[in-house]
């Protein structure tokens, strides 16, 4: 018998059908319940789908097996005839070698390196290499702060891949995760047939099957962008030799999952923010240092905002006159422009929080959380935008008075990761404050401003000799005075200024 293999014949018609429907391999895989790896192998002619998937593909594209090149090829028929003709031919046993699994769903490394995250990476590595509960770590923080970016860097890190010698599994969740699809992909990677996974009627049964298949392997399991505790827990399927890394924007999920080992990922400092922009648009940083400094302050060191801004400035600077950079920086002085900067994503690597067709922007990733808030919590968030943003802080009493809310709404915003608290006072990040100001109606804004002026007029009267208290509230008092002047509340303005005269002098 000849030992040479017949070259694989790509299934051109199958590929053309997919492209005509404007679908990615991943989207086809999701539609029919398999992995994009299988779809790729089918299109390249490496394997042929079984009857079940052939029927699924025909129904999806409204074509016959013949029209999709799914019929048995001449080489496949010849191989089958040869096997029938020589049933006693010796079978070569290929030794089974334990396979290292690196989930194809792991996003690719970005083109630029992580800036200012050396300490975070070292701490996360230390935690993941621990044992027992120490090996379950959760990252939480604001939308766009870089939780997924850190996880991607860890998943590609050579040290981590060497330590987790049996591989890495990745589950990108988001608000509406496809749990059966992720379990099916993991099952396929771990050697569980599609038929076996199909027989399992619940996510609980699938999780148990995955746990059994993992057994004593040493693996890292990344659960990215968890929105519900139950869904995050469903993917905690590793055995004693595994570690789990969870990312979420919700502090309560991080706290529950990590059992005290949650890590709050903070925004970048000023020098780190400028370094990131320098990587993305060096010519702009060199020419417009003060305006770049102002931009960094305006977005509060949020990595996603800085990345979108840097990419935008680089495009404007590329082979264009200097005036384009100046104009671009002027446009970016508008909060609305900054929030709406957007970029298309790679279809196979869409952000788990966003629908596939939606572009990535600061506004879009904040809006996803905003839409899940109830009406009272949303109204409270918008009203709080009249406070000066981070690094300014405000008390719970002031928040309830100005937003006309209860502690329930403040707790809901804190649990959603939209409002930061140090246990005593609150902060609203710059980009969330900008977003809220764009959503609030004129009537709501006017009412919130009036309550802010009234509250701090009374506050100054009550604490006129308590300089320590006045100092703590000074930024908000100044903001209230400015608003009073702008809206024509002359009496409150003069009264406040007179009371504070000795404090400032």
Quick overview:
With 505 residues, this protein is α/β, with parallel strands linked by helices. It contains 28 helices and eleven strands. GO terms for molecular function: ADP binding; DNA binding.
- CATH fold topology of the largest domain: Rossmann fold
**Unreliable runs, pLDDT <50, ≥5 residues?**
1-6, 89-98
Total number of helical segments? 28
The biggest sheet, with number of strands, parallel, antiparallel or mixed sense and barrel status, is: 6 strands, parallel
CATH architecture of the largest domain: 3-Layer(aba) Sandwich
Counted beta strands: 11
What is the approximate shape? elongated
Q: Whole-number radius of gyration?
A: 28 Å
Main structural class: alpha/beta
- The chain-level mean pLDDT equals 85
With strands numbered from the N-terminus, the spatial order across the biggest sheet is 1-3-4-5-2-6
CATH class of the largest domain: Alpha Beta
Report the helical percentage.
Answer: 55-70%
Overall number of domains: 4
The CATH superfamily of the largest domain bears the name P-loop containing nucleotide triphosphate hydrolases
Distance between the termini: 100 Å
Q: Strand fraction band?
A: 5-15%
């Amino acid at each position: 018998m000849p030992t040479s293999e017949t070259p694989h014949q790509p299934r051109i018609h199958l590929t053309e059908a997919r492209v005509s429907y404007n679908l990615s391999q991943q989207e086809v895989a999701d539609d029919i319940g398999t992995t994009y790896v299988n779809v790729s192998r089918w299109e390249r002619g490496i394997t042929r789908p079984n009857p079940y998937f052939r029927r699924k593909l025909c129904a999806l594209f409204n074509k016959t097996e013949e029209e999709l090149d799914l019929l048995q090829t001449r080489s496949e028929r010849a191989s089958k005839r040869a096997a029938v003709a020589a049933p006693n031919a010796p079978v070569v046993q290929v030794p089974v070698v334990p396979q290292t699994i690196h989930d194809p769903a792991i996003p690719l490394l970005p083109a630029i390196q992580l800036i200012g995250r050396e300490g975070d990476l070292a701490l996360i590595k230390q935690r993941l290499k621990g044992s027992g509960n120490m090996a379950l770590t959760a990252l939480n923080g604001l939308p766009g702060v870089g939780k997924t970016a850190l996880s991607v860097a860890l998943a590609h890190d050579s040290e981590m891949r060497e330590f987790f010698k049996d591989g890495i599994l990745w589950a990108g969740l988001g608000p509406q995760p496809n749990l059966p699809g992720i379990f099916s992909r993991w099952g396929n990677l771990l050697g569980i047939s599609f038929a076996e996974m199909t027989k399992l009627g619940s996510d609980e049964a699938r999780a148990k099957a995955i746990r059994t298949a993992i057994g004593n392997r040493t693996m890292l399991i990344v659960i990215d962008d968890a929105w519900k505790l139950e869904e995050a827990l469903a993917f905690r399927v590793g055995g004693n030799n595994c570690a789990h890394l969870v990312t979420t924007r919700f502090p309560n999920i991080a706290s529950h999952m990590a059992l005290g080992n949650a890590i709050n990922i903070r925004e970048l400092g000023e020098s780190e923010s400028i370094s990131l922009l320098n990587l993305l648009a060096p010519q702009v940083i060199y020419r417009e240092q003060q305006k770049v400094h102002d931009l960094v302050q305006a977005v509060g060191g949020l990595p996603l905002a800085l990345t979108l801004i840097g990419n935008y400035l680089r495009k404007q600077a590329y082979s264009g006159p200097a005036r384009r950079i100046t104009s671009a920086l002027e446009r970016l002085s508008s909060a609305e422009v900054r929030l709406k900067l957007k970029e298309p994503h790679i279809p196979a690597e869409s952000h788990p929080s966003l629908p596939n067709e939606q572009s990535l922007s600061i506004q879009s990733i904040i809006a996803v959380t905003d839409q899940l808030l109830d009406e009272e919590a949303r109204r409270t968030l918008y009203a709080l935008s009249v406070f000066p943003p981070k690094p300014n802080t405000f008390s719970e009493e002031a928040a309830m008075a100005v937003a006309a809310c209860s502690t329930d709404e403040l707790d809901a915003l804190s649990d959603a990761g939209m409002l930061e608290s140090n246990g005593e006072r609150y902060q609203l990040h710059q980009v969330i404050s900008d977003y809220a100001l764009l959503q609030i109606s004129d009537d709501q804004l006017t009412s919130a401003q009036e309550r802010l002026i009234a509250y701090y007029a009374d506050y100054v009267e009550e604490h006129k000799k308590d300089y320590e208290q006045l100092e703590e509230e000074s930024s908000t008092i100044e903001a209230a005075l400015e608003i009073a002047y702008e809206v024509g509340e002359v009496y409150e303005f003069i009264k406040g200024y007179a009371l504070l005269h000795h404090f400032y002098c």
